[in-house]
Specification:
alpha/beta, 5-stranded mixed β-sheet, disordered N terminus, binds pyridoxal-5'-phosphate, single chain
Length: 384
């Protein structure tokens, strides 16, 4: 990854310096984009630099992968063309029919894909993974092979105890994969709590500028499942493109400063909205009354993330009217970019979603927190 030995530095410094201090040949401080789809063999029929073919072997992608591995404390990271490509690769790589325990509250797109997992010979139990007794009750000895948890989870921001779930899972011989998209390695490093694989929709905070769709898997150690993931990625060709990897790398260099600022804004707005006449509930793990707050304190350090939700007292139509009345907040799906987004979540999640109709989801961006608050308060007036 680097052209000099990396000192033992903070995550903030690691991210800021990206793949190294400079590129070797020109001494440019920014890395070039490596577009080559193929690489030369020497006359002795070998590949002297170890690079063979672009589907699995792109230097820009490898640089971004190395940085994510360093941020997560992982042995290896793979980047994919989307978060969904990363997440589904874990399931597609399972070697035998497996019972999967998955968070009841999670990104709806992956939940709906998991619901149809029977077509691949697996089965899934959706469980409230913030409830450890419920998790224990669902374990099927000899059958449960994978736990898929998302924490904080979309869009209620429920918190699952990573260390405790890893203990339950490992005692059952199962692997734990954590979708840590919302926490980012700045606030939580799931591998340090015992998780086997961390997954990110890098489309969100890792890139942070709403201009790349990407996904990442980072593993604590190589093993049979990880080797299958590596093989599948080569066969399916669903790796990230060089240009997207370069943009992602550029985005990650400001990761620490961005997510801490976004988390500060989310915390400020969530606290100010508690008790507002139009709001029945504010959902944010940084609030003391949030059911997951104590667990969040244990496994999130430096902030509770930039996402929060509110429930609008007057119901679904009033919530949609509030979303229609904002100016600064942008009405769009996704999150984690520099621009603040508002979304009536039930409109996109569809059937079977645990998301209440009166819920509005907010992604705090980098705008001025007071201006965002003022805009939202004006909009909430339509629902009082
Ligand atoms: C928590 C979470 N995981 C995974 C995904 C899927 O990622 P992508 O949209 O990059 O495929 C999303 C997308 O919104 C998400 O919010």
């Amino acid at each position: 990854m680097d052209d000099q030995t990396k000192p033992d530095v903070t995550i903030r410094t690691l991210a800021a310096q990206g793949p190294g201090a400079h590129e070797r040949i020109t001494r440019a401080v920014t890395q070039p984009i490596h577009m080559s789809a193929t690489f030369l063999r020497d006359a002795d029929n070998r590949y002297p630099a170890g690079h063979v073919y672009g589907r699995t072997d792109n230097v820009s992608v490898q640089q971004a992968e190395s940085l994510i591995a360093a941020l997560e404390g992982a042995e290896e990271t793979f980047l994919f063309g989307s978060g969904m490509a990363a997440a589904t690769s874990v399931l597609l790589a399972l070697a035998k029919p497996t019972h999967i325990i998955a968070s009841q509250v999670m990104y709806w797109g992956f939940r709906s894909w998991l619901r149809d997992i029977g077509r691949y010979g697996h089965c899934v139990s959706f469980v409230e993974t913030s409830d450890l007794d419920a998790v224990r009750a669902e374990v099927r000895p000899g059958e449960t092979g994978l736990f898929w948890i998302e924490t904080p989870s979309n869009p209620l921001w429920t918190i699952s105890d990573i260390a405790a779930i890893c203990e339950i899972a490992h005692a059952a011989g199962a692997i734990v994969c954590v979708d840590s998209t919302v926490a980012t390695p700045i606030f939580t490093r799931p591998l340090a709590f015992g998780a086997d694989i961390v997954m990110h929709s890098a489309t969100k905070y890792l890139n942070g500028h709403s201009d790349v769709v990407a996904g990442a898997l980072a593993t604590a150690r190589d093993g049979p499942l990880w080797s299958n993931i590596r093989k599948l990625r080569g066969q399916l060709g669903n790796a990230l493109s060089a240009f997207d990897a370069w943009l992602l790398m550029r985005g990650m260099r400001t990761l620490d400063i961005r997510v801490k600022s976004q988390a500060r804004t989310a915390a400020t707005l969530a606290a100010r909205l508690v008790g507002h006449a139009a709001v029945s509930e504010v959902l944010y793990p940084g609030l003391e009354h949030h059911a997951g707050h104590r667990t969040a304190l244990r496994q999130m350090s430096g902030g509770f993330g930039g996402m929060f939700s509110i429930r609008v007292k007057k119901g679904e139509n009033a919530a949609i009217a509030v979303a229609a009345a904002v100016n600064l907040w942008k009405r769009a799906t996704s999150f984690g970019g520099i621009e603040s987004l508002i979304e009536h979540r039930a409109s996109i999640e569809g059937e079977g979603s645990p998301c209440p109709g009166d819920l509005l989801r907010f992604s705090a961006g980098l705008e001025d927190a007071d201006e965002l608050y003022g805009d939202l308060i004006r909009a909430l007036a339509v629902a009082v």
